[in-house]
Records
---
Amino acid sequence: RWFFRTAASVPVHVNFQDEDEEHDEAPVSRGLKVCRWFQKSLRVELGANLYGGQSLQQRLLHFEHLTSENVSGTLDRFRSNSLGFGNRMTAADVVEMYMGTDMEEHAYGIVFVIKLGIALATYGYNSVDVEYLLRAVCDGMSLPLNRLDAGLGHFTVSFGSGPSLMLRTGGGLQFDKILACVRLAKQASGGFVQAPAAIMVLDEIFDRRKPYGQLIHIFAFQCLCTLTALSIRLGTYEDAKNTALIVPFTIAVLKFCKHGYQVTELVDFMVPFATGMGASVVWRYVDRTKSCHVATWFLSVLIDALPGGQLVYAAYEFQFSSIIYSTSRLVRALLQCMLLAIGVTAGWQFFGHNLAESDVGRGGAIASLPPSKECDGPLTMEYKQSHWLLYYGVYNVPLLFTILVGANVRLRDSLAPLAISYVSLFAYGCLTFLDCISLPAVVNNIIVISLAANLGCAHEYFTGTPPIVSVLPVVFFLAPGAPTLVAILRQIHHAEGDKMQGADLWGDLVMQGLSYAIGLHSAQALWRGKNMRRARAVATREHQQAEDVALAARERRGLPRPTTTPNF
């Protein structure tokens, strides 16, 4: 069940609803239940990406053997499984649609493509890459694809003379499952995969637990927000301390939303609401510092809620002429920023009423608004100039690691994305702070994202890992949407009579997203065809090697050659 549907770029908080209650068949003591809960919540998976500790080819051959002989009703079991993610239609329902038609032999291949498309869209792959990858799979499996449309929250597909199916997709971000699904799709694009076996491997990916437990994710979220005050906002250590005091307010609200089914849909409002409340409490009772520091606090806590990924996906889809979906994402990103600003302002009223009276010189509504400007004086700029090397060179390592943990990247897969993100962001620091290099911010964005994307595509060439795994942490760090959130807060100040200068909401939002998309698109244009050809060549070689190993093993045991797999 996917309770959280958010516009956030890397919604770490989605993982707070990881651990569902289990009903034990036999009654156990409360102490044992607590021990089991802690055991689940503190787990760290170190195993292979697919169940059984086998390679992808070995797993596929294993299921091909089971389906060819229908061991223990294997075919009946996977036919009864639903398409997943809130779709009640089962594989048997889809197969039945094509029975007795010229598409009957492709029925299981169609089921596989449908389930794969829903999974990729739900796990956080952008619509352009979903469509490109699925078209390659259809070519490899000789499926007569008519229409493929991976939109926001829905997936529409039709084959040959069959009906058009519109299915729903969920929300979230699980890089470990994206990685497994993409590798399976590339294997299928080579044309050596039997559809029933591929479906069963996909079902295993669906059922696999997240690599980290709930408490690990909560701790990662706490560290992420705290380190953001240093590495991303370039604040002081006092800012980091006060940010750490605000984060528990947000965590408590997220846990409440997880268990309170009637308020689950309000999570995008409740997160900034709790942040505004927590910031006002800290400023009133803990640290009465300058108001400009308070903006750094709540921007650090809201880093997980900013729509950075939505902006990049929107501009990226625009580059590929997906106008409707790109526009929808842009509008959603702007509304998300507005919702964050309204939520912070509403939560601020509980303990922040008239809190800024000494700064504005009078009470009332204008003195009850959260600060909308970060510190930018000469002393602040001097502090940033003297500390950026420490922040980018040292603190970025734990920050990027917590981002990868929040995105469910397994430890065994995290080293290369961490290195790529670290190098790219260090280059961004040099472009921004070194006096000998002076380029416009938009050009810096293009250079940094292009560097991360090219390194990510090179990593994909050798390992098959999608480049978005390495690029999205960089986008997360650059925090697109934060200036728009601040601009909206300034608009609220202006409406209450403050003489603060406003800003262009759309201009900054779209410009940031487009600059990132240009860097990403330039790398994809150079590497996409090359990487797909490489993936198909590797799939061919691995398939032949796996078949030779399996055949030699059967011969050593004196077993006959396997029967020919039915044409599914």
Note: The radius of gyration is 25 Å.
---
Amino acid sequence: RIQLAELSLRASRKAKDQSAFESAGKYATIGVEALPANKWSDHYLLTLDLYSTTAEVEGFLGNIDRLEELYKEVIDQKDRPLFDKLRVYHAVISYMLGALGKHNNLSAIEILVEILAQLGLSFPKRKRAISRLTKSWTRKAKKSMSSLRLEDISNLPVMQDPVHLETMRLLDQLFTATYMAASDLMPLTIFERIRLTLEHGLSEYSTLAFAGLALYFRDDPALASKTGTFARLVMTIIDSKNVDAKAEMWLTTFVFCWTEPITRMSSRLLKSYETGLSVGDNENAIWCIAQYIVIAFQSGKPLATVEADCKIYLKQMIEFEREIVHADISMYFEMVRNLMGRYDSDPTAMRSEQRFLSYTDHTVLGVFYSCQSMLYLYFGEYEKGAELAIERGDSYLKGIPGHVWGMIETFTRGMLLYVRAQSTRKRMYAKEAKRVHTTLEGWIQKGNPNVQHYGLILNAEAAVLSGKLDAADGYYQRAIVAATRQGSIHESALVCERYGEFLLNNRNDPEEARHKFDVAIRRYNDWGATKKVQMLREKHQDLWQKPPSEVVVGLSISEAGKRVSTLSVEE
């Protein structure tokens, strides 16, 4: 029986290394069942290895009941050291962090805090104490990072102590759990890893520590970028392939996206996805490809391309049992298909709305409502969109702080609120629109290169609301140029459409409005938003039924020059 157990363990390990998890689970189960009754007393190491391996596989396969059985039996070995139990602890925690539901994150936090306490690292329990400690650490961290140099990082020793190394790993998992649960403990998990790094040397988790600190410093783009650079430096010093995918995901979509064009991010995420798969870090590889899809949409890639990527990688997310990220990308997938006209139903309705709303995870709900708002904006449901913007407020920015999608989500809310304020003249919409606008202007002032055109578009809508029509005219034209240069074909289409509405309703210029709608339709077509094109044509069909007239004839030379200049940019 012992020989069968040993052979089964070897077969399970081999299958696991080849990502054949079903086979790995079968072999591991055979091995566990072959163990004798005195397994823990007489065959401790073999039993521990088999139980740990089986727990890892069952967790990956999502067999939570079996995972809990294995976990409890290992933990119940009271006279055994903590380090012997870490593999099953990590198996349970990894499952929790990949499963939907805030309760899973809170359970993971509870387990991790308990383990860290056994390793000598305790956290305050009262909110007031956490707040005081966070403020103190924030001041110290800003001072330390401001004076720290690249050569200081390069001269740090390599961390050797096994307790410190395991503490770093556990703190990294605690960071993820506290981030997902929006816990006040999150900053302390960052500060403790930075402290351990500076006091005891570099480890692969130092990369993630600096990446987390860069995220925390997101309101200071210069300091965040500098801290992110430290993270990338550590990646070149330490063999950190096992965490590279996770580090790059955080750095790309939470840090450098606020200081660099997001068009640069796609290749990094794709490379990190491949790196993650190559070392068996399937969880973070999948998160990298998910962010790749998000940025593809946000930067205006053809919807057919985004749709095709979603189809491919949603299958892989199911295969790897990544429930949260599968839910997120399913929402983007439905949004894209609505824009493309893949369904006959109301294009603003998410077909799986009931399923999405059944999730209790605040990050998943944040993605759902942001996708819903996007559909409201593009299909002109300004009343519903503005009401949702009032109801949700900054919940996305607060619930998923620093994420790249927060830029377009904020812009979408601002647009919905301004347009609704224009039609109703109600103060509550105007006040909230201006507040959102101020947030976005703050990002522009800090040098964010990805939101310049958003600012111009909102400036135009604000000017319309204030009755400053000449200013609005100028802002619309500048916004078209900025969005075009940005490569944001979908947003250049949107601003052309909004400019057309302005010319039609505020300038009484149907001829020029028709021209702007023509440009918008061409760009929506190029983007692949077939349903949007159809609805825009139907809304203004009377404009195309009128005979065309000369565009430039009758204008002064200077006016004609301006018109031709505008045309050249738009075409």
Note: The chain has 31 helices and no strands.
---
Amino acid sequence: IQEEKAATLLKAQKEQEERMAYLEKCRQELESDYTNRVARIRSFVQKTIQHKNCRNKMVPQELSKTQMAFENEKKKLKSDLKKCTAFCKKIKSSQSFDDVFVASLLKDLDTLNLSRYLEEISNAFLDLSSSSSSSNRKLKVGDVNGVVQVLIALHERYKDFMTDILVPQMIGYLKEKQQDHVDPKQKKMYMRILTELLVNGVLIETKPIMKIVAEAAGVAKGDGGGVDGGQEEKYVVTDPALLIAFAKSAGFELIGVMPKGIMQDMDFILSKQQQQQQQQQQQEEDAMSMEMMAEETSGNDGNADMDNEEKRTENDGTHCANTQDPVKQDIVITVSQTLLTEGKEAIEQLESIQNERALNDEICNRFRKHVTGAMTYLSKSLISAHKKLFKMQTRCDQDRLLAGSLPEQREKSLKEAQLLFESLKKSVETLAEILNIEMPLLEARDEEEKKEDAVLGLEVYRAEDGQETNLGPFDDEETKDFYCDIPDLLTTIPPALLGYSAEDVERIHKANSEKYGSGLANEENRSDIITIDEYVSTANESDLESALEEDGIPGSQVDEGR
């Protein structure tokens, strides 16, 4: 008995250790996820605050003071050719616009007078993202933030650099209509840089960017001309990559919508805080109920105490039995109070910047309308491309079963359809994240396609009159007619060879026309068609021999053949 008790106790201890290990693992995973979400929200808030501070510096009064102060100190700076050209070469030969490299460029700007080299500096930045650049390294998305910091510093010192030199060249390139002279990657980088400058308050004029975004979204001319046009605009997206590049950089400060990922992080943190509050309330209620039970049982006799002890023992046994498998239990795991406090602070910071906008509400609403309209068009295109791809895949699978392989052109068309679907899906997912809306529902197959798939190797074809026609293993009616319809022998074999006179031929044609119509016989009535053997058996042998001898075949060979 003691050995059984020891074994039972050892098993219970092992189960308790497993349960505690599982709870600790779940707690660590939860706290790691919670910490990552808090960090994302803080980074998002910090970036928004940086944009706001930069916009405050770009106010005309503040900017003019900064530029005037630099003009007064400019004569004291170095302007020799060697160091100024070295600054341009440094930009062209840059490997990465990280914090260290950007800090070195900003330090050079504080010591150099680059008034005579602004065009060379502008060409150096433009050359970074050009496909024809002599540099081995091209500008990447991660470099945009560093590039913008340097451009803002140049704008604070040289008032004509952005408005008269760099920005007009970028906008002119984005408006280029000839596709041979345009690099799509370069366009996306220019759009990102211009959008970041717009968010930071460097660019004041929004009409060029608005026009480029409207053209990329494919706004139909004459359909309202904007938010205040009074008519519903129609969108036919012409450049989804350029539009997505704008939407990624614009964010909620230009579009006016919080990203879906940030909203999901906020909801997760709020749910954990609410869960913690509910657990605390439950603990307080349990403590109060235990105190009340202790007061009630203090005046009872020993028998009542014994009964209560037995009930508590039964309840404890039931609880232990329910917690033997921790995986199956609905365990409430909460994070530490320190993390909850950090999450609460992050939510408060996020709520404080929700109404921050880089431009006025009218322009932001117009940007959002263009992006939303493009999202609607791309969603419809995605659904249509998904249906076409599914039908094409089903048809190709059937053809592979019948023929063993597909022609090269069919394989190429199928790959192009797959690439188009993947590209549209990626674009729609990105816009859905930015606009905080759900993805369109893509149905795998409809009821009609399920019915067709029930019969393998057969295809139900609907003719022009709407009636279903069983094509069997053939692709279309023309192919089926070629292999199944029997030609009229009277039009290919001389009647004399078949032993028929002109009257017999006319009579047979009339009978077939009355029985089968003007078309050819159906497969179901094939047994009623007069075969060539029947024609030959009814012919006169002397007529056959004479007809064959006229064709140069002697009668002896006819006898041997017979």
Note: DSSP finds 22 helices and two strands in the chain.
